[in-house]
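Notebook p. 47: complex prediction with flavin-adenine dinucleotide.
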Amino acid sequence: MSAADDPAPFDRPTSPADQGASSADDALVRKALATLLRDHPPGETPTAAFLGARFDAGLAWVSFPPGRGGMGLSPGLQTVVEAELRRAGAPNEADRNVIGYGMAAPTILAHGTEAQQDRFLRPLFTGEEIWCQLFSEPGAGSDVAGLSTRAVRDGDEWVVNGQKVWTTLAHTARWGLLVARTDPDVPKHRGLTYFVVDMHGPGVEVRPLRQITGEAEFNEVFFSDVRIPDTDRLDAVGAGWRVATTTLMNERVAIGGGVPARSSGVIQEAMRVWGETPPHTDAQRERLMRLWVEAEVARLTNMRARAMRRAGTPGPEGSVAKLKGAELNKRVYELCVDLMGMQGTLFPTHYEMRRPDRASFSGGADVRHNFLRSRANSIEGGTSEIMRNILGERVLGLPGEPRADKDLPWSQVPRS
Ligand SMILES: Cc1cc2nc3c(=O)[nH]c(=O)nc-3n(C[C@H](O)[C@H](O)[C@H](O)COP(=O)(O)OP(=O)(O)OC[C@H]3O[C@@H](n4cnc5c(N)ncnc54)[C@H](O)[C@@H]3O)c2cc1C
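Predicted complex, C-alpha cells below:
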C-alpha cells in the first residue's frame, strides 16, 4: 500500500449494477458526459459556464428530474459522473457551496414550488449564489426544534426577529435556509415554518465567530425586522420541521457520505505523513493499518448506501456515514500529529484571523490545522451522541429517549 498507488481502478464502479442502475442508464450518462466534455472543454470554459452546461445536460445531480439539473436516474450513477469529471479536470463548486449542493438543492427539490426550483437551483449549482443554513441558535442546537427566532405574518410578507449561531459561510452566502417559529402556542415541532432568506437584505447582520483553527468559517447571524416575501416560504406554514428533516437527512450524507477514490482524502494524508516521518513503532504501524481498513470499509459502505438509495431523501443510513466519518477523521489526524512528534505541536501559521470561502469538513490544509478542525466533525451536522440516538431508535429499534416537552405548547416549555 502506498500513496502513489493508482486509485483510478477503484474510483470507477465495476458495473452499472454496483450503482443500482441498468446498463442502458449507465450508457445514457456516459453519452451525456462525452457530449458535455466535447462541447465545453473544461480547460477552455469558464467555471460558471461549464457548470451551467453540466446542469442543463442533467449531470448536476443525475437523480433530479430533467430540467432540474438531473436525468431522473439512480443516485448511484452520480459516482460515475463525479469520477469521470474529476478525471477530465472539470471545475466544481461543491466545496465553496457545500450547503447549497448538499442541503439546499435537495430541500428545494423536495419542498419548493416550480417557481422556486426554477429560480434557485441553477445559480446554486453554478456557484453564482452561495447558501448557508440558519438552524442552530444559542438555546437550540441538538434540540433544534426548540428554536426561538420568530416570524410573524404581515400581509404578503413575514417579519423575522432573532439570532442564529454557528452559521457556516453566512459571510459568503446570498441565500439562507431559515427555520423560524410561526406559532408558539402549539408543540415545538408543529409551530415551525421554513423560509429562504436573502442574506443581503436589510436587517440581516453577520458577525464572524473564530474557531480553534484561528479561522472563522462560521458566524452569528442577527435578524432585526427582516422582511421575507411569502413567496420565499418553502412548503406550508407549520410544515417547517418536515422540511428541516429533509435538510438534516441530506446534511448527514453531505458531510460523511462521500465516495472518494480508494486511499485518497484523509487516509492519504496519514500515509503521506507516515512516509515523511520515519522511524515508526509497530504499534503506530498497526494504528495506520487499522485506520486504512476502516476508511476503506466506510467508503464501500457509502458506495453501497448510495447504490441502494432510490431518488429522494436519504434514510437513517446517513447517520452511519456521518458518525463514522467524524470519528474516523478525528482518529486519523490524531495519528498524524502523533507521527510528527514535536513538529505536531507547532501551528503552521501565525494564527491570524481568516474568513475562508469554503468549509473544510476534512482535509484541505496543513495536517496540524486539520487536526484542530477535525474536533468539530463530531459536533457539526449533529453531534455523534445524537447520531447514536438516531441509529439506536430508527435502525436498531431501541426505545426512544423520554421527551417531556413533546406535547406541550412551545410557549409553556421552561427555558433558561
Ligand atoms: C464547525 C461547525 C459548523 C456548524 N455549522 C452550522 C451551520 O451552518 N448551521 C447551523 O444551523 N448549525 C451549524 N453548526 C451547529 C451544530 O449543528 C450544533 O453545534 C450541534 O447541533 C450541537 O448543538 P449545540 O452546539 O447547541 O450543543 P448541545 O445541543 O447543547 O449539546 C451539548 C452536548 O450535549 C450532548 N447532547 C445534547 N442532547 C443530547 C441527547 N439528547 N442525548 C445525548 N447527548 C446529547 C451533545 O451531544 C453535546 O455533546 C455548526 C457547528 C460546528 C461545530
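Notes: The first strand starts at residue 131 and ends at 134. The CA atoms of residues 166 and 393 lie 27 Å apart.
Next step: compare against the earlier run before touching the bench.
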